[in-house]
Amino acid sequence: MSRWERRAPSRFTNTLELNDFVTTSATKGLIAGKAGMSGLTPMVLTTGTLAVATHSVQVGKYVQVAADAQTLTLPSVVIGASFISVNTAEDGGALLTISPDSGDKFLVDIAGAAGDDDKDIINTKATQNKYDFVHLVGLSSVGWLIADIRGTWVDEA
Q1: Domain locations in the chain?
Q2: 63: how many CB neighbours lie within 10 A of its CB?
Q3: How many whole angstroms separate alpha carbon 143 and alpha carbon 48?
Q4: pTM, to two decimals
């Protein structure tokens, strides 16, 4: 045995099978059929303003939206605040818009350019897949960082 190889401790006599692991939706990062994302509790919302004390990762929550043509408005940036919004409609079933507060922006927009104040990001209905999501983090006093994203999103014109 080379110095880089390790043997399993003797108390492990069985090998792991594929079904020993939690089943996940393919490439979605969500546990299929479970009520949690990395231990967070979902909150089902329709159009409304998000609040750090109610909807944020800091309080163990994430937001699920399944209805069509919904807009979630972010609060004024709180540095370090983190929101996850998941579109749980069936494929092609729902347009979802995430809107920053009027004085805030996405620091880098979907296209990869510097963001503009009060410009939304949109999960388009025509290309939407169940479990498309965006994870936003308050990075500076004027803007949100798009920390992670899945699906087809576009910038407001």
Answers
A1: 27-155
A2: 24
A3: 19
A4: 0.77
Tens place of pLDDT for every residue, the chain, 157 residues? Answer: 444 444 444 444 444 343 333 333 444 444 443 334 668 899 998 889 999 999 999 999 999 999 999 999 999 999 999 999 999 999 999 999 999 999 999 999 999 999 999 999 999 999 999 999 999 999 999 999 999 999 999 999 9
3-state SS, 112-140, equals CCECCCCCCEEECCCCCCCCEEEEEEEEE
Fold of 27-155: Jelly Rolls (2.60.120)
At 52, list the tokens. Answer: 């750090």
Q: Yes or no: say if 96 and 72 are a contact pair by the CB < 8 Å rule.
A: yes
Query: Which amino acid belongs to residue 67?
Result: A
